[in-house]
């Protein structure tokens, strides 16, 4: 089966989001390391930040693989749950900016754009051609388990 347009668009939005997230991480790496080092309980765990990045990227690749290469409804819903967290992040960032508790900087701007792209990618998974890609809604009539008898009225 050829990849439908909404899945191709999902892929574009998804990888743009992942790449922006990696750029954001790289730009803020020293700040993140300093925050980790300032915590007495985590100061000796210098491996934690790189390990979290590798784990996050591995999860991103797996979600992509099981949506684009081996269509899985489970992966679709994992993506949707992650996108819901992205919505929360966008809303909280907008509220913090509106209340004047956060300044708009490169980290915030990249994070907002990355999360918006991630949510847009999730939206693509609900287009009609994507539902077909996942095999959803193909046999809706077969799921009714209606037993027809000759005497039963049909409405």
Description:
The protein has 155 residues and is mostly helical. It has one domain (5-39, 47-131). 68% of the residues lie in helices and 0% in strands. It contains 6 helices and no strands. Helix 1 (5-27) runs antiparallel to helix 3, helix 3 packs across helix 4 and helix 4 (73-98) packs antiparallel against helix 5 (106-124). The chain starts with a helix and ends in a 22-residue tail after the last helix. The relative contact order is 0.16. The model is unreliable at 142-149 (pLDDT under 50).
Summary, kept brief:
The protein is mainly α and 155 residues long. Helix content is 68%, strand content 0%. It has one domain (5-39, 47-131).
Features:
mainly alpha; about 160 residues
- Strand element count: 0
How many distinct folded domains? 1
Average pLDDT, all residues = 88
Q: Which radius of gyration do the C-alpha atoms yield?
A: 21 Å
Beta-strand content estimate = under 5%
The chain-level structural class is: mainly alpha
Oligomer: single chain
N-to-C series of helices and strands: HHHHHH
What proportion of the residues is helical, as a percent range?
Answer: 55-70%
Shape: globular
Helical segment count: 6
Span of the ends, CA to CA: 37 Å
Describe the sheet with the most strands.
Answer: none
- Poorly predicted tracts of residues: 142-149
